[in-house]
Amino acid sequence: MRQKVTLGYDLNNKYGQISYFDYDNEEPVTVEVATVNSQIPLALAFFNDRWVYGKEAKRLSIMNSSLVFVDFFDKAVKREKVTTTEKTYDAVWLLAKFIELTLKDFEEIDFITFTVPKTDVDMSNLLKGIASHLAIPKEKVAIQDHKESFCHYMYDQPKELWQYEAALFNCEDDRVEAYMLRKLNTGRGNNDLYVTVDEVANATVAELSAIFPVFEANKAKDADEKFKVFIQGVFDKKVISSVFLTGEGFEQEWYPQSLKVLCNGRRTFLGNNLYSKGACYYSRKVESGQAIRPIYLDETRLMKRVSVQIRVEGKEIWYPIVNWGAHWYESDARLEVLVNDLEEIKIKIESLTDNKNEERSLSLKGLAMRDDYSIRATLEVMFLNERSCKIIVKDMGFGDFFPSTGFEALELIDLGGIHGQFNSMS
Fold it and tell me: How confident is the model at residue 217 (pLDDT cuts 50, 70, 90)?
């Protein structure tokens, strides 16, 4: 039983994989399920009055495939049901059971980051809901996609590996995809580092002469030659510091000539736990209170920051209540403040895409003022959709001394669209 850990959990329609920090290790450790494999097959079965998962469930499918559930990830995302010859289950319940069983050796989880091929509001709600069902508070859970996990993995590696652009090739099923990690210049002039990961090319297995699996020598040679040309196209006129190969398609040694191109003047790595480790690095940063650097951006992220002016230790500061780089559906927030002799709350909206700032104020007219900071108020941010949020200020009273007056003020903020703004950034 492992105590007090931060986790990165890679999850897709084929397998789950877990990496963890247990505070005794400087690097994340990936849970092994076999001698050379750390991927837990996404499979469940109810056998001999108990639930089994992973390889044990897969073995049961050899005897009787009707006993085993294997296709419940995508169905859970769609909130569908899974039916066998004997019973029907909710796919969300099956996914929750799988995650519960795979986490049974972790006694206390300080923070967990799930990394999935693609994330959105439905995926976030699904996985945070499952975590809550497993008694993991939602504030101890983060959801990110594989590209962001690659980003966080890279920036915990030696700087020479990401000094320029870093390339990632992923080969799964019938596709090989090429991604490039690059820095963004926002022109903000602050010390923050902004990065993104672009998909720059892709090809089907058929286009590369059946890369996966390759059994015939001639097909392997042809696939190697076509993959080499594919790589050269990806690398054209780019300065690449490092290359990472991931996915089961690269587990076979069919690409010796391509490997020479990959390794020419740059370091190249092969592995299948990059995403879970990247998510684990992120979990450790959040749990330890470190600043999240770099700030990952893509076309789904907020490109504006909203701050309110507050006084801390006698100094006026702009305190961010909505951060750029966040998903709108994860940006609701609540702040408790003490108010003294204020007629308005100042709000500043800053854009990353055009460097413009906008200031406005939220009137506190009607709020009966009292001396000595005896007005306790909450400032709440609630997102309506990806384009707008509202800021609500409420008088909460001050214990038994001053009951709440019921005062409430609201400011609606239009943040513009997300899609299209990011594309304007170099």
Answer: low
* Tally of CA atoms within 13 A in the half-sphere of 51 that contains its CB: 15
CA distances from 360 to 183, 344, 347, 392, 412 (A): 32, 10, 5, 14, 11
- What is residue 8's three-state secondary structure? strand
Which of 346, 295, 298, 322 shows the shortest CA–CA distance to 415? 322
Residue 31 gets which letter from DSSP?
P
- Select from 330, 321, 337 the least CA-distant residue to 381: 321
SS3 of 41-59: ECCEEEECCEEEEHHHHHH
Highest average pLDDT, of 128-142, 161-175, 344-358, comes from: 128-142
Per-residue pLDDT of 324-339, as tens digits, reads: 899 999 999 999 888 7
CA dist 177 to 161, 182, 208, 255, 292, Å?
Answer: 20, 16, 12, 15, 27
Using CA atoms, how far apart are residues 123 and 120, in angstroms rounded to an integer?
5
- What is the full DSSP assignment across 346-398? EEEEEETTT--EEEEEEE-TT----STT-EEEEEEEEEEETTEEEEEEEE--B
SS3 121: helix
| Secondary-structure percent of the chain, ordered helix, strand, coil, rounded to 5 | 25, 40, 35
